[in-house]
Write a structure and sequence with these properties.
The complex is a heterodimer of chains A (197) and B (493).
Chain A (H helix, E strand, L loop, with lengths): L2 H17 L5 E4 L10 E4 L3 E2 L6 H15 L4 E2 L2 H10 L10 H11 L3 E15 L2 E14 L5 E10 L15 H18 L8
Parallel strand pairs in A: 2-4, 2-5, 3-5
Antiparallel strand pairs in A: 1-7, 5-6, 6-7
Helix pairs in contact in A: 2-5
Chain B lengths: L3 H15 L6 E4 L2 E3 L7 E2 H14 L2 E2 L2 H10 L10 H10 L4 E11 L5 E10 L4 E11 L15 H12 L19 E7 L2 E2 L4 E8 L11 E6 L2 E4 L1 E2 L6 E6 L5 E10 L5 E11 L6 E6 L1 E3 L2 E4 L3 E7 L5 E9 L5 E7 L7 E3 L12 E11 L4 E10 L6 E8 L2 E8 L5 E10 L4 E7 L4 E6 L9 E9 L4 E6 L7 E3 L6 H8 L1
Parallel strand pairs in B: 1-4, 1-5, 2-5, 9-16, 19-25
Antiparallel strand pairs in B: 2-3, 5-6, 6-7, 8-10, 10-14, 11-12, 11-15, 13-14, 15-16, 17-20, 18-19, 20-23, 21-22, 21-24, 24-25, 26-27, 27-30, 28-29, 28-31, 31-32, 32-33
Chain lengths: 197, 493
Amino acid sequence: MSRPLSCCIVILWLLLAGCAREVPKLYDFAGLPEKGACRIAVLPFIDKGTYPRGAVILYKVFVSELVASGNFKVVLEGDIRDLYKQLMIYPNAQPNQEQLEVIGGRLGAVLFIGGDILKMQQRKSRNTMETDLTFILRIYDGVSGRVLWETYHRRQGDYYQKVLHFGRINTITGLARQMSREVIDLWLEKGMTPCPR
Amino acid sequence: MNKLQPLCIALFLLLVLGRPGFAGTIAVFPLLDVTVSSNGVSYVLTDYVRRETADIGFELVSDRDIMQFLIRHRIRALGSLSSHEIMAAGRELQADLVLQGTVCQLQQSPDPAVSLSVELIRTSDASVVWANTEALYSSDLTSLLGLQDPENLNDLYAVFFSRLLATMPGGVNPSPGSDEILDIDSVVLLPKYLRPGEKVRCKIRMQTMDLGNALRPRLTASVAGRDYPFALDSEGYYFIADWPAQNMAGHYQVSLTAVWPSGRKKTAVLGSYTVDDRAPEGALYLRGRQVDGKTFFSDKLYIVPTLTDPEPVSRWEVMVVDQENQVIVRQGASDRLPYRLTWRGRTTLGALAPDGEYTVVFKVWDRTMLSASVEQEVSFRRSPPEINIDLNSEEERITVTLDKEAGMPLSYWWLKVYEQSGRLVKLAQGEHLPATIEFEYTDGEDDERLEGVVVARDILGNLTRKKIKNLFRLDSEDESGEVEMEKEWLEEF
């Protein structure tokens, strides 16, 4: 291969790589509370995917990762579901601003986290399991219910594959866990203040 | 002896640190299994978790006691116990910790896979102290040489549960807080929208209504800087507080303040309500033909009811009232305003309304039942234009005079005069009546008849078509029912 052609290919590759969307992508609409986000309530996610009970799975995994990050006090899912019942909100519906104010005021949450699952898929393909997950997570103010941050994330299990089959994520739960970790790490990196020790 | 001393110490440390230490009592609740259904349970995996937890050193609450607790508290949804239930478990099962979890994935074939999410909750303050999710797929354990690769779920279980609970703490510090929690069971705050001075009632029920007065917190509702104490109702079921709505319009948040006999104080938001002192402003648009500032229609009238300052409404009504003040059409709903209504000139019973003047009335009520009413006049004209024809003939000169009765202005008219043979003798057209049409006619034939067709249409679209078989005798007949499709269609076209 001639040298100029090689250079062109390298430049083209770099340009295309530059155009690729970098995820997780954070959209910052307003600043998080300066005092820190100690107590967080994770609202049931809205499932627009096709995986059976995908919203429940992602919810459990995300909460687990949030607790495991060791920085946040997370409101119990049962308390949130109780309030949803009291306020007559369907688990797959997004509460309105007024309802968010009540939920925040009742649970003493500084922040809410809610989200939408856009795609959740796991299917067998020849000898491998293909997993695919796309979601949007939003951080709301616990007092006003206003959206502060929004994060878009999308990954497939083979993204993490290193050599042979090693590293590849073969379960949707595993992929959800990995992506949740990446989002929480990004939030901490971007200035989400954890609980004071 | 001196040589044996370090050995004894080492043996003692091995015995003390080597055996599982007492880490507290734990209640491992049955795992929710979402692979089965939203309320599925996996007792098999629960047993695995119980065994692994016992190996860490926790003392287990018996599964029989846990089942009785679930029945006693009517807990149907596993994996998501509330604070109240966790604290009750602490009291009733003498458990320091509760472990609950969810089976997210469980697959036996073709490739075994399992994933589980668990969380450890301290019962004294219902806080999550540890959580973990683990997922394992058969190929995750596949080695390069393919030796001892997993073939079924049991092969996965051999390593899965130790991995799942590997980071679980062996013991948990007691909570610094007290046991007093504001465990609200239900809140009824009504009405949500009201006028100044109207009564607001807030009813709350606590999870622990059966506490005696000595242990029960003093409850107060706080709104806009004023406090209203709650009192127990006669049946002892609800705490109730009433107060008059504020005089100023606005959105008011209601907070609950609980003060326990110990002096501890907690607050929570109960809800909110809106005070509205302004009636809605309705507007009504009628889409018809405007003539001299009045609205006319013949076929259909579009009625657009709206609000000048939009707000949610509780009810609306649109009526059509005739000149005798009788309501001939009434339509309404306890819903949002319609985008548009169409009146086709018929009464609610389906009969065609007579031509005349009508009033369209739009009434609307907002959420506080303050109402507004707005009305507009409309004229209904369904009758076609009345055309009078007169003919004078002087020798070979014929004069046709067209005139119309009072009514709507015309959009157009035309007159065609034919010979009996079908030859067109005269075509005249215009937009205004009366009109005079003159033409020469010499009849060379035996038959002296001349046929005429007159068409007139008013600005509302009402159409008159007249066919006169013999203009000299003017014995006209209305042709509207006749079927001469091709000829008529072509002329219309």
